[in-house]
Write a structure and sequence with these properties.
alpha/beta; DNA-binding; 6-stranded parallel sheet; homodimer
Chain lengths: ~210, ~210
DNA sequence: GCGCGGCTCCTCCGATCGGATGAGGGCACT
DNA sequence: AGTGCCCTCATCCGATCGGAGGAGCCGCGC
């Protein structure tokens, strides 16, 4: 016996690309396009009421990002499976999607057969990750695991900011109305948390970790 | 009397988007699609031999970026006019395209009518810039005018990198087999170029400008 | 109540920093 | 031939840095 047709919803803000997707799915009898939108907010609303089998979402949409729509769908406990489509392969974005329970993550330069096949696989409960995505994801996971966020205290963060602005310890002491000795103590603690032993390196490390700027 | 049909060449690496473009142009009798490719290098070769009236290029293509193809076409002195299509609006990319003599710069979320009309206008010798693009361009021009890119020399960049790694001037001197005095001179020049007066601030500023990391 | 972490402060010291200033060689563009 | 940039090196000096090693106070959680 044959299963019912797979209902799909398309969230994609580029009209031409959307048109291409619609045509691709219409060309295969096992799919049924039940709706589409170029706005994340509207897409989420319609997905909630239509409850399609699969929602294909572009990460870059006005209103809500694909990942936000994904998160909302999963928070609701809906059975709708989500396929993310993204032009770039940003490891952080991929990571978030996977963490949120995405069923497939494909790049937008995939051809129609690849996309349709992936959606079919997702409808059967499988998970599909594009090869380019897998590499980035592995790196991201490794990164997050043994990083264990040192998390600077508010005071330390404040002092590191001033240091990055070029202020010396005495400068900062005046600025914060504390003694130079205290500033130096904070700096030493910052160095330890960041695994460095000097101002410039601390600033570089902090910026790489997104703690600064 | 009516002019001859406008021959267009399409450089676009997303199969689905390319398909959409081809369909859009075929639907209007005044255009004739003479070729297409998803690879920048191949696109340039074919444009050189086909000499279309207008070449529509995606900025993000494997082989050669849209801007590189544009530069090559203009370097050759070809009469082919170029329309750039880009998903993101990166001011630096827009600036380069305009500097290279692009005839139109559109975003990929434009609808088919907008794109086709722009190409028709370009064929008549007009220049078209999408609204989102104009704002960024204005900003970029302003930026370049009174900023005059400090652009660190290779040696300076090298020394700044080591500084960001936590090395002291004597350390760097040993590393690079030069005297400490020279390292300090380079550092002072770096400070001046970046508008700071201290290592940590230099590192912070360099990272913000994308010179580091 | 006891511990832990955050915040505060102290001294002593050698190493390093940044400012000021000067100078010479190499290479490219004009 | 001259100009400008890059790279090189030097000296002198006061200010600052980072390391080492203390210490006390407060608030939160167990």
């Amino acid at each position: 016996m044959k299963a019912a047709r797979v209902s799909v919803y398309l969230g994609e803000d580029h009209p031409i690309y959307l048109e291409g997707l619609v045509r691709a799915f219409r060309a295969r009898a096992e799919f049924e396009v039940v709706g589409s939108s170029g706005d994340g907010r509207q897409a989420l609303d319609e997905i909630r009421s239509l409850a399609p089998d699969v929602a294909i979402l572009d990460e870059n949409m006005p209103g809500l990002r694909g990942n936000d729509v994904l998160a909302a769908i999963k928070r609701d406990g809906m059975p709708t499976r989500v396929v993310m489509l993204s032009a770039s392969v940003d490891s952080a974005v991929v990571f978030r999607a996977v963490a949120n329970g995405v069923s497939a993550y494909l790049t937008k330069d995939s051809d129609r057969a690849t996309i349709c096949d992936a959606v079919a696989a997702v409808a059967r409960g499988q998970t599909v990750l594009a090869p380019q995505v897998q590499a980035g994801l592995a790196g991201e996971v490794r990164l997050r695991e043994h990083e264990t966020r040192p998390a600077l205290s508010p005071r330390e963060h404040e002092i590191l900011e001033q240091t990055a602005s070029g202020l010396s310890a005495p400068d900062i002491a005046r600025e914060l109305q504390i003694s130079t000795a205290t500033v130096k103590t904070h700096l030493r603690n910052i160095y330890e948390k960041l695994g460095v032993s000097e101002r410039a390196a601390a600033v570089a490390e902090a910026m790489r970790r997104g703690l600064l700027e």
